[in-house]
């Protein structure tokens, strides 16, 4: 009695990838090649673990648990008794618990700037534990698959199957048939990154099969004054202020990594600041250039920022480290309590006279809050930088820099790097009577707050770049643009504004849900493309070029692909029309690789660069069905074997006696007349 319920690929998270690092498995949950099968047990409390782990008479068990029971304590108990656990399915609800973070308490502690040689008293979160709620589940290896299920009809069907067939009554074992589940999620990778990458290089067939891939994507960057994209290295008499934010996030279940506070709040703020600077930087250009950088893969040991720094050090980027005047990074900024945001800097480099420009950057930021409802303050105690891309720049050389964040010490984010860091975490709510199009235009309190932060960032960047002081107070971010970005990045990317700014061939990446912010291995992910096109539309200029001219601008006298990128976008649908008003955008926005230098250098066991890889797999799915008792199975097998031998004996007997059994009486020969 076999009942397929659905293909779970769209629900599956933590076990659908096996992520490896240099010395061991990390966040690896894999099924056997033929799938893992177990009798379903719905966990109702931690005490109920006794049934699948010791008392239950029908192991192994497939444990279904609510997210409130998805804790380190319960998961580690099941890990230690993995011979009785075939797999785990976690029901992800529509509401959030008080707190949950499967990340570590000290994110990226081994690849930042602090070490035994640089600020040893600040290394490994000795003075400040940034993520005290972190339970480290994302960094555990489990010998059984862990799936996520949405709280919907299919999940209720599984629970009902358990209640009908598997639930113990008064402690007695349930009667057969029992409801079972089979999970398929076999991962091809083995052991660690060096082993995995070495096996990739061993090719014994015409069509070799790769077993893992480096994590990576593209960084997005743009500048207020364009750079020749073919001329790399140091620029004489060029000074650049870098404004940075990270693009990626992660969760235990990779397809629900929304990163609302962890990443979206920061890069939305920076995009809004870039738009606020467009007009003033054209009318009164500052003496220094401003480069906006959006880094991918920062969750996994700073993949994007370490690659940009590596390229700068090796003459593979349009500027080098000596061209950098200062860095302003936008971190988590949406959950500030009270009226303060915090300016974090590196106490070690600030002791060096060469980076006293940090104080100038602090002053420029603090003086930009005039007329706004909050203050920017420095932490009261000497502490390290929070996890940030700036740390990778400081590893290369001392550079003045500030990380803007909503927390003084520990993160305000109760759901750091978890599937609960979503729109609800930012209190992004809309009146129930609004249509999707009206929600897109509705300016929420969160949007208003981030608009003020973006205004401060834009003003401070203009001052830091040597802009005209008399124009500073005219710089204001647009709350409508901020609210549209928040809606598109956290509610539904398939909305009219995102449709208008994207290329026609990319319209299929827009979904009626938020994008996934896990960096993955598929280059040019949805967040990367969205930020690329948004940055181009917000900072670039609409042209009169036709679509064919937009694709080949070098054939025109005043256009150059070396200086600009040219993007053909869909445009809006004008009133009383069914055709989009498409046009060509010219902008100094580029993509550069965000793949760890370790893979370019072939140093798969590097301790200086990220060495994260992701396992390959063929398919991921689940099914449930009823299983008979072992006695009935053995009886069925025995009867089948008996029938087989009986049929063989009968066949043998018939074969040996065929001349007797099948002979016919011959007719006498015809007489001759």
UniProtKB/TrEMBL annotation:
Its main location: membrane. The keyword Transmembrane helix applies. It holds the Pfam family Nicastrin. It is found in: Membrane. One of its GO terms (cellular component) is plasma membrane. It is a single-pass type I membrane protein. The chain crosses the membrane at residues 634-654. Residues 30-189 form the Nicastrin small lobe domain. GO terms for biological process: Notch receptor processing; Notch signaling pathway; protein processing. Keywords: Glycoprotein, Membrane, Notch signaling pathway, Signal, Transmembrane, Transmembrane helix. Belongs to the nicastrin family. This is Nicastrin. The lineage of its organism: Eukaryota, Metazoa, Chordata, Craniata, Vertebrata.
């Amino acid at each position: 009695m076999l009942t397929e319920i659905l293909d779970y690929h769209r629900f599956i998270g933590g076990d659908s990838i096996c992520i490896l690092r240099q010395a061991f498995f990390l966040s690896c949950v894999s099924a056997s090649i033929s799938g893992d099968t177990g009798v379903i047990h719905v966990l109702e409390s931690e005490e109920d673990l006794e049934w699948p782990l010791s008392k239950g008479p029908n192991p192994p068990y497939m444990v279904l648990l609510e997210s409130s029971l998805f804790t380190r304590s319960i998961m580690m108990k099941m890990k230690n008794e993995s011979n009785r656990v075939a797999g785990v399915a976690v029901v992800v609800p529509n509401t959030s618990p008080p707190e949950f973070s499967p990340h570590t308490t000290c994110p990226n502690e081994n690849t930042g700037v602090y070490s035994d040689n640089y600020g040893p008293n600040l290394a490994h979160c000795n003075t400040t534990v940034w993520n005290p709620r972190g339970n480290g589940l994302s960094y555990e290896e489990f010998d059984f698959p862990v799936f996520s299920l949405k709280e919907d009809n299919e999940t209720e069907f599984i629970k009902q199957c358990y209640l009908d067939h598997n639930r113990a009554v008064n402690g007695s074992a349930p009667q057969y048939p029992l409801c079972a589940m089979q999970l398929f999620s076999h991962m091809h990778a083995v052991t660690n990154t060096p082993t995995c990458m070495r096996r990739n290089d061993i090719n014994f067939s015409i069509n070799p099969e790769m077993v893992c891939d480096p994590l990576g994507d593209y960084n997005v960057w743009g500048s207020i004054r364009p750079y020749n994209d073919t001329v790399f290295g140091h620029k004489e008499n060029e000074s650049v202020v870098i404004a940075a934010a990270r693009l990626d996030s992660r969760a235990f279940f990779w397809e629900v990594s929304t990163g609302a506070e962890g990443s979206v709040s920061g890069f939305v703020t920076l995009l809004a600041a870039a738009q606020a600077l467009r007009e003033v930087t054209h009318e009164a250009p500052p003496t220094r250039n401003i480069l906006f950088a959006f880094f991918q893969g920062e969750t996994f040991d700073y993949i994007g920022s370490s690659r940009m720094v590596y390229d700068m050090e090796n003459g593979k980027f349009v500027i080098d480290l000596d061209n950098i005047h200062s860095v302003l990074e936008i971190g988590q900024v949406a959950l500030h309590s009270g009226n303060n945001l915090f300016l974090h800097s590196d106490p070690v480099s600030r002791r060096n006279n060469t980076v006293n420009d940090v104080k100038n950057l602090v002053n420029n930021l603090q003086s930009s809050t005039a007329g706004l409802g909050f203050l920017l303050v420095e932490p009261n105690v000497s502490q390290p930088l929070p996890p940030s891309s700036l740390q990778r720049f400081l590893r290369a050389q001392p550079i003045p820099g500030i990380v803007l964040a909503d927390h003084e010490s520990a993160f305000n984010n109760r759901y750091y790097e978890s599937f609960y860091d979503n729109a609800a975490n930012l209190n992004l709510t809309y009146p129930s009577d609004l249509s999707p199009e009206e929600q897109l235009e509705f300016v929420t309190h969160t949007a208003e707050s981030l608009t003020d932060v973006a205004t401060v960032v834009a003003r401070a960047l203009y001052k830091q770049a040597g802009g005209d002081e008399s124009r500073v107070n005219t710089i204001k971010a647009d709350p409508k643009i901020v609210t549209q970005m928040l809606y598109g990045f956290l509610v539904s990317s398939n909305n009219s504004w995102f449709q208008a700014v994207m290329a026609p061939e990319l319209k299929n990446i827009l979904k009626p849900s938020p994008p996934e912010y896990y960096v993955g291995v598929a280059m040019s992910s949805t967040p990367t493309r969205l930020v690329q096109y948004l940055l181009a539309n917000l900072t670039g200029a609409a042209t009169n070029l036709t679509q064919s001219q937009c694709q080949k601008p070098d054939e025109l006298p005043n256009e150059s692909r070396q200086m600009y990128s040219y993007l053909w976008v869909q445009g809006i649908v004008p009133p009383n029309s069914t055709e989009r008003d498409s046009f060509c955008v010219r902008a100094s926005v580029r993509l550069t690789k965000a793949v760890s230098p370790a893979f370019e250098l072939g140093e798969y066991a590097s301790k200086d660069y990220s060495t994260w890889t992701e396992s390959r797999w063929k398919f991921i799915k689940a099914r449930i069905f009823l299983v008979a008792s072992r006695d009935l199975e053995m009886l069925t097998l025995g009867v089948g074997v008996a029938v087989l031998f009986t049929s063989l004996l009968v066949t043998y007997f018939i074969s040996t006696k065929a001349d007797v059994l099948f002979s016919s009486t011959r007719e006498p020969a015809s007489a001759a007349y």
